[in-house]
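Is zinc ion placement plausible here? Inputs below.
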Amino acid sequence: MSRNAHADALIAFLNASPTPFHAVEAAADKLLAGGAIALDEKNAWNLKPGQTAFVIRNGSSIVALRLPKDVSRPRFRIAAAHTDSPCLKLKPRAPDPSANYRQWGVEVYGGVLYNSWLDRDLGVAGRVSRMDGGTIKSDLVRTEGKPFRIPQLAIHLDRGVNESGLILNAQRHLAPVLGLTEPGEGRSLEGWLEESLGAPFASLSFELHLYDTSPAGYGGFDDEFIFSGRLDNLAMSHAALEAFCSEAPGDGAIQVAALFDNEEVGSTSAQGANSNLLAATLERVLLCLGKGREESLAALARSHLVSADMAHAIHPNYPEKHEPYHYPLINHGPVVKGNASMRYATNAETAALFRGLCGRAGVPVQDFVNRADLACGTTIGPHVAAALGVPTVDVGNPMLSMHSAREMCGSEDHGMMIRTLREFYRD
Ligand SMILES: [Zn+2]
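Reply from A.M.:
I modeled the complex. Tokens:
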């Protein structure tokens, strides 16, 4: 049952992407299918007007770019989002048995709602690396059809839980149950990895995440919702990618879609929004076009960035948590996010630009600010805006249950954001 093609495509992308590594692989596959060329940061680039290309760093961040036909006065139109989501990551060497349970210790990645990971059917997915003939070899893995579980304590053993709230200790209470150690020959994580990679466990290093195995899908009587893990921020990663792939070379703007890892832990990593990934990529593009430093700085000054990250829709059961005049509604269009302390990079001019794009796309637009007495979240927008000096607007689609293992958003909003970002690339 299909609500719309954009939402269908998002659901497929979510199901293909249990981790940032998988999301970037899915993005690269889509770009390659559309005729883009893969660039390697380690080799010299040779780009021509009209070409579409992409570069991947660390397997978890990707920058796609398309050169216009006329490169005499370049400027960038950059849509940016993040590929990572809060989750539980397996520790390197932590078989953590209790009684006869086979378990594995986890670390918390980002602002996880711990309770949302309890009593769900969980899988393990991520990247496994090893040395192979003097070079590093990495493979993506994913458990299929063998769900694991972090069981919640029975109410009989925690009588006050509904009155006092659920307190979970990250070290003691979040280790998933993978199986039983009896009769001693049961399958282990080590065994699964050795089988999958054909290499001894001692030689393997990994970044493995737990993920909710329930597939993404529609919700509500009229399919008005999408229910899934990782909507923050694979939904906006997908919107940027879809808009980018739907467009053709423009007249003057270099179109860019930049999807960064590690936003949920502050963006400071070799591949995060605080890295030189985007700045170096844009610089190399301009060098390919024979532009000097003076022309490159002028090109940046002519540029714009849309930082797209999911926004808080008003919660029906907690309306008091929202600013009374700025509460986004689901399926009422993209949200412009502002904050006086510049936790969002939006200013009047960039908000006006985005509002204009929504108008051209025939899409309604909403405004969000936090309650003045609540601390505001942030996005990659301020980081990239500060690094590049490019005017930036922070936007996103409204959602509920942000940072839960299972979130929800509107199925109509997704196409509206894609249409707006397409207008941005044409600008
Ligand atoms: Zn986010």
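Short version: The first helix runs from residue 5 to 16.
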